[in-house]
Structure formats: structure tokens, C-alpha cells
Specification:
Helix content is about 15%, strand content about 30%. By secondary structure, it is of the alpha+beta class. It has two domains: about 70-635 and about 645-665, Quinoprotein alcohol dehydrogenase-like superfamily (Methanol Dehydrogenase, Chain A), CATH 2.140.10.10; about 675-755, Cytochrome c-like domain (Cytochrome Bc1 Complex, Chain D, domain 2), CATH 1.10.760.10.
Length: about 750
């Protein structure tokens, strides 16, 4: 009996050892495991794996190429601030005052602060308090789109190169820097290298890297705590949005709608980096919504619906909200008959499980790239004597969609109306038309043609939802919007919703034999041809709409696209960045401009505000934007009523905080430029760093630029050089950023792209 008992205890101990050991092995390898999702069954996951290829080989290659030890962290100062807690739902829904702890100010994404030490009466006295050069993101391929976070006097921000910095929020001195190791051949980014921010919570800074990795950094040192591979960038899966920390989880969405991916949102354990759930934005066979995709092909597997922005959360309803991007291929609907859910939709999921709650599709069967890239905003407002839980989202269509966030039903009417049809494109018979005002023009008039379009302009023109096929059709809004990624804001004091809009002319056409129509994994797949109309104007709008009626209260028109983001405050102010480098303040009620400050680069990121020791600061990352074609830089400008510098001219080099390691990066860049190679090879590197975001891989056409393979300039070196040097239309000149050798190499590469047919 004693012998049996001893044997039993040995067996029990062995089981315990195996169980515990297995647990830690699971945790160690769990970063790459995919938890079973409520919007997907394992059978369908296996089917998708067979269709798209086994990811095991890519995973092994990725892990071999790079590990967390490849990243670099540099500590420059002692970190003296408090460590961020595991923020509660109450803390995350509080309006931002001393701190700015989430992408949108709080998890409602409203970008409203109740701070009012700076108000409409004294905002003219704002001066630059400190300026910090972050030391990265200079190349034209980078875009500075980040929203900084602030907690207990420390600011956390990220550049387009994915370099993260912690700064003293009162002086701008750099406390630590994190410089990740990204693949040298990373090329599956449709819209330039950009990151829109980081997340913060439980003593960690969470970073979504462009190569689809999620990294947690120690808040005090910037050292890597854990790293998770979300997906494979080689297949087109990337991440540009800021992650969201909520309830012990880190949420992120996958980008890459131009590469034939299947979009999704996923939640990760904030302590371990292990995936908790993943919810695909395109339903598999047998799931609700799949009936809106063809049954006789696999269009749903590579159907797009990426997630470009940071979600919002309502803890009371336990729902997470976001909008999905374009169908794939963007412009060719001929092989994906149906409405194509849940692309171009606002979606609500259970925050704990990722289970579908409701959706609203803004564009059925999108063939115009009119996807909703703007972050959703949650708000509470009294309507008809009853408090409503609202959600608003500014679409590329030029409308704001205002829904009840409890069920997805419109708070303000939205009517399905018949629209023009094209049999080849399998167009939807109707589209949703919200009541209220559009914040950009949605049609091209005879007056527009006479005023804006070149004399030799030929082709059809149309309005929103006009279809196209093998003959060019020029319409508004363009793929830039309407509303694009720059975040909107809601002010509960004025009850106005503030949104940035773009107004320009784009032509679409479908050519069956064009390279853009052929799917190849990891290659951009647009499906048709699009390009801006040469020499036509690009405009923008800053608009305030009544949240109860969706009617315009005031609007400012710009002679360039509006491409930054909005902050609004209890001081009756709206702050916004401008392409020319200005940060501008408007009276939130009337729209009157009340202040501006010119920075040294395109101010293409959203401003924030925070308070330390009773002093209110306003801050913006001014670093330029490749798609906006603006001047590049690397600086954060922070303002206060006690600031010292009235203008840029007052700020000397000695007044600027600088990264202690940026000189090393400059030396490395110089060494790379001096490396030997053929003119075409060197020119390709110049092209990828400066032109690819707008003109697409191999010049086939991107989000702003025309197809270069058919350009007559390729037969005229002098014209090509002059275009590169000085630019025209929406294209910037590169006279100040490229040297003679780089321009000559670029010319040789562009000539190599010429389509002889």
C-alpha cells in the first residue's frame, strides 16, 4: 500500500511538472498562435491556409531574420514619472486633462479636452515653449502622423520610421529612445511609412510596427518586454494604426487592403503578448454576411476590409467599435458580385470575445476606394428629450454617418437611393445617402469644368457613385476623400462635430490587360487605373456640423488638402495642422481664425493638449507627409501661454532638444548613399524612398500619382529632371532633398519602367 501510494505521488508530481512545463512552453510559443475566433471556425481557417499558403515557413524565416534583441533601446535620462497603472474603464473614459493617455484622448476617441486655461480670449498669446528634434523619419517615404501620449509629465511618441521616444513633457528633453529593426526589403505599404501612435498601460508602451509585429516596451527604459508577430508583411499585412489598451488587452487592426489580404481586428494579452481573439472583417462561408460574396470563387479570402484606425470602446455596453476599409481589388468589382460585407462598414464587436454585434455599411460593393478610414467617435447627446448613445464617422464619401451605438441604427436618417449602374462592375443598385450636408462637393458641374480642368481635358465626368469601365470617368470625391485618416473631434459644449475634408478630381478606368488587374501575393492589387487630373486644383475643408442635424454650421476652405487631424477644447477652440507647416486655432463656435504658428515642416499630425503643474500645453508633431507632398522634418512643437518663442525665427539651433543618436543615423544614411551599385539599382532605392507611396510599385499608379510607365516624360530626360526638381500640381519638388547623383539615378530607374506597349 505504501509502495502504491509512493508510486501515485510520483505520478502526480510528474503530471504537475509536465503541466507546468507545458504551460510555460505554451506561453513562450503562444505569441504566434491564433486563438479560435467567434467570427471564424477552424475548418474555414484551414481552408484559408490552403488557399493562401502555409504561414509556417514565413514565420520561421521572420523569426530567423529578426528577434527582439535586434532592436535598440537608449536611455538618456532617469525616468522620474509615475508608472501607468492597468487603467480602469473609468480612467479610460475620463476626459483628458493632466494626461492624454489614449490615441483619441479617451477611449471614446472624441479628441476633446475640458482644459480652458488657453481659450478664445488669450490663445493669441500662445508661444512655442519647447521644440524637440526626434532624429528620424527624414526620407520622403516617411510620414509624421502620430498622436503623442502624455502621462504624469512624460510624453510618448513615434516617427514614421517607427522610432519611439519618451520625452519630458515640460522641457522636451529625451528620456529614452527605442529604435526597432525593420526588414530592409519591407515594401508592402500602399501609402508610405507611417505610424499613428502608441498605446500605454500597466507600465508598458505598446507599439505596432509596420512589418505587422506588436511590441511592448518597458515604460521607464524603452526596453522590449515582449514581441508578437501579428502577421506576415510579405503577404501585404501591415499595421499603421495606433494600438489601443483596454481591460488588460491590446487591440490592433491589420492594414493592407491594396494587397488582397483578408482584414481583421485582434486582441492580445497585455502582459504576455499572446493572442486572445481574432475577428475577421470578411465572413467565411456559413457565417452571416458571406452571402454578399460570390459562392463560385474565393474573392472573400483576398477581399480586403482592412482596419486603418484605432478603435473606440464603450465599457457600459462592452462593445469595441471601428470602421473597415476598401474591398480588394479596390476598383474592380467584376469578380466579387454582391455588397461585399463587412468592407466599407462601421462594426461593433464584443470587447471580451470579438463576437459580432452589429454593422452599418457606408458603401455597397465599393469600386471607388471610398472606404471609411477616419476613426469612429462615440458621444452622448440629448435628442428629442432623450439621451442618445451616438457613434459618428466621417466617410471618404463626404458625409458623416451618425448612428445609435447600441444597435447601429441611424440617429439621423439615412436613405437607400438608386444609383447609376454598370453591368461589368456588378454595381449595387442602391447606396446609403445620409440626411444633412456633405462636407465636400460630390459632383462635377459645368462651372467646375470651365474653372478647374485643363483645356485639353477629355472624358466623362460624374458624381459620387458614378461607375466606370474601359473609358475614363472623372468624379468627386476622390480616393483621398472626403474624410481620410486625419481624426475628427466632437465638442460637447458646442455640440459640433469637426471634420477635415479633401476636394480633388480623380479619373478612373479599367483596362483588362493592365498589370494592376493581376493578383500576385504581396504585390499591390488595385484592379483598375486611377490618377489625379493634371493641373487641376486640390482643395480642403475644415467643417463644423451640428451633431443633432448633420447640418454645416461653419466651414473653412483651403487651397490644399486638409491632412492632419483635429483637437477641440472647453476653451472654445479648434486646433488643426496645415500642409504649409502652420498649426492653426479657430473659434470653435464661429470658425474665426484666432491664432497660428508656422513650423518648419508639414503639420500633418493631430494636435493634443495636456496640463502639468497647472500649466496647459498644446503640442503637435510636425514632420511632413508623403501623400500630402509636404516638406519633411522631425520635430515636436509644444506651446503654452508662458512660451518664449513667438515665431520659428526666434528658435535657434541651441534652443532645440535633439536626439543624442541622430548624428549616427545621418552618418549611416550617408554611408548607404555612397554604397556602390548600378544607376538603375540606386535609382530604385531613391524611388522607393521618395516616390513609391504616390506612384505605386514599379510606377503602376498609387494613391496620389499617375501611372509612370506610360508617361511621355520617359522619352525626354530634361523634362523628367525638371519635373523631379520642381514638381507640379500636387507633386512636390525634390530640389532641396535629392542631390544630382540621386536625381540622375532616379531618371535611369524611371526610364527602365517604360511600357513599350
Amino acid at each position: 500500500m505504501e509502495k502504491l501510494e509512493k508510486s501515485m505521488w510520483i505520478a502526480i508530481i510528474a503530471v504537475v511538472i509536465i503541466t507546468v512545463g507545458g504551460y510555460f512552453v505554451f506561453q513562450g510559443t503562444g505569441n504566434n498562435d491564433h486563438a479560435e475566433s467567434p467570427i471564424e471556425d477552424t475548418e474555414q481557417e484551414d481552408q484559408e491556409g490552403e488557399e493562401q499558403g502555409d504561414s509556417g515557413e514565413g514565420e520561421a524565416k521572420e523569426n530567423e531574420d529578426r528577434s527582439p534583441s535586434d532592436h535598440q533601446s537608449f536611455q538618456h535620462m532617469e525616468y522620474t514619472g509615475d508608472i501607468a497603472p492597468d487603467f480602469s474603464a473609468e480612467e479610460l473614459t475620463e476626459l483628458p486633462t493632466n494626461n492624454w493617455i489614449t490615441f483619441g484622448g479617451n477611449i471614446y476617441n472624441g479628441r476633446y479636452s475640458p482644459l480652458n486655461r488657453v481659450d478664445e480670449n488669450n490663445v493669441a498669446e500662445l508661444k512655442a515653449d519647447w521644440v524637440t528634434s526626434l532624429g528620424s523619419g527624414f526620407d520622403f517615404k516617411y510620414s509624421g502622423e502620430a498622436t503623442p501620449l502624455v502621462y504624469d509629465g512624460v510624453m510618448f511618441t513615434i516617427t514614421g520610421a517607427n522610432n519611439v521616444s519618451a520625452l519630458d513633457a515640460t522641457t522636451g528633453e529625451i528620456i529614452w529612445e527605442f529604435r526597432p529593426k525593420l526588414p530592409d526589403d519591407l515594401d508592402t505599404l500602399c501609402c508610405g511609412w507611417a505610424s499613428r501612435g502608441v498605446a500605454l498601460g500597466d507600465g508598458k508602451v505598446y507599439v505596432a510596427l509596420l512589418d505587422a509585429r506588436l511590441v511592448a516596451l518597458d515604460q521607464k527604459t524603452g526596453e522590449v518586454v515582449w514581441e508578437t508577430r501579428v502577421d506576415e508583411w510579405e503577404k501585404g499585412y501591415t499595421i499603421t494604426s495606433a494600438p489601443l489598451f483596454y481591460d488588460g488587452k491590446v487591440y490592433t487592426g491589420i492594414a493592407g487592403g491594396e494587397y488582397g489580404i483578408r482584414g481583421y481586428v485582434a486582441a492580445y494579452d497585455a502582459d504576455l503578448g499572446r493572442q486572445i481573439w481574432r475577428s475577421y472583417t470578411i465572413p467565411a462561408p456559413g457565417e452571416p454576411g458571406h452571402e454578399t460574396w460570390p459562392e463560385d470563387n474565393d474573392a472573400w479570402i483576398k477581399g480586403g476590409a482592412p482596419v486603418w484606425q484605432t478603435p473606440a470602446v464603450d465599457p457600459e455596453l462592452n462593445m469595441i467599435y471601428f470602421a473597415t476599409g476598401n474591398t480588394s481589388p479596390d476598383l474592380d468589382g467584376s469578380n466579387r458580385e454582391g455588397d461585399n460585407l463587412y468592407a466599407d462598414s462601421m462594426l461593433a464587436l464584443d470587447a471580451d470575445t470579438g463576437e459580432y454585434q452589429w454593422h452599418f455599411q457606408q458603401v455597397h460593393h465599393d469600386i471607388w476606394d471610398l472606404d471609411p478610414a477616419n476613426p469612429v467617435v462615440l458621444y452622448d447627446v440629448e435628442m428629442d428629450g432623450e439621451m442618445k448613445k451616438g457613434i459618428a464617422q466621417a466617410g471618404k464619401t463626404g458625409w458623416v454617418y451618425m448612428l445609435d451605438r447600441t444597435n447601429g441604427e441611424p440617429l439621423i436618417g439615412i436613405e437607400e437611393k438608386e444609383v447609376p449602374q454598370n453591368e461589368n462592375q456588378k454595381t449595387s443598385p442602391t447606396q446609403p445617402f445620409p440626411e444633412g450636408d456633405a462636407f465636400v462637393p460630390q459632383e462635377i458641374t459645368e462651372e467646375d469644368i470651365e474653372r478647374d480642368l485643363p483645356e485639353d481635358f477629355e472624358g466623362e465626368v460624374g458624381s459620387i457613385f458614378t461607375p466606370f469601365w474601359d473609358e475614363p470617368v472623372t468624379i468627386k470625391p476622390s480616393p483621398q476623400g472626403g474624410g481620410n485618416w486625419p481624426p475628427s473631434a466632437y465638442n460637447p459644449d458646442t455640440e459640433l462635430f469637426y471634420v477635415l475634408g479633401n476636394d480633388n478630381y480623380f479619373a478612373y478606368a479599367h483596362y483588362a490587360e493592365d498589370e494592376a488587374n493581376k493578383f500576385e501575393e504581396g504585390k499591390e492589387w488595385i484592379g483598375s487605373i486611377w490618377q489625379p487630373i493634371s493641373d487641376a486644383p486640390f482643395g480642403g475643408t475644415v467643417t463644423a456640423l451640428d451633431i443633432k442635424t448633420n447640418r454645416i454650421v461653419w466651414q473653412k476652405e483651403w487651397d490644399t488638402i486638409a491632412y492632419s487631424g483635429i483637437l477641440t477644447t472647453k476653451g472654445n477652440l479648434v486646433f488643426v495642422g496645415h500642409n504649409d507647416g502652420r498649426i492653426i486655432a479657430y473659434n470653435a463656435t464661429t470658425g474665426d481664425q484666432v491664432w497660428e504658428f508656422m513650423t518648419d515642416a508639414g503639420a500633418n499630425a493631430p494636435p493634443i493638449t495636456y496640463e502639468v503643474d497647472g500649466k496647459q500645453y498644446v503640442s503637435i508633431f510636425s514632420a511632413g507627409n508623403s501623400l500630402a507632398g509636404t516638406k519633411h522634418g522631425d520635430k515636436i512643437y509644444t506651446f503654452s501661454l508662458d512660451g518664449e518663442f513667438e515665431s520659428l525665427e526666434d528658435i535657434s539651433d541651441e534652443d532645440i532638444n535633439r536626439s543624442p543618436i541622430q548624428s549616427d543615423e545621418a552618418e549611416e544614411a550617408e554611408e548607404q548613399n555612397e554604397s556602390q551599385g548600378s544607376a538603375v539599382e540606386n535609382g530604385q532605392k531613391v524611388y522607393e524612398n521618395n516616390c513609391l507611396a504616390c506612384h505605386g510599385a514599379e510606377g503602376v499608379g498609387g494613391h496620389n500619382g499617375p501611372n509612370l510607365q506610360n508617361s511621355p516624360m520617359l522619352d525626354d530626360d530634361d523634362s523628367l529632371i525638371q519635373q523631379i526638381l520642381h514638381g507640379s500640381g500636387a507633386m512636390p519638388g525634390f530640389e532641396d532633398s535629392l542631390d544630382e547623383d540621386e536625381i540622375n539615378a532616379l531618371v535611369e530607374y524611371l526610364k527602365s519602367l517604360k511600357n513599350e506597349e
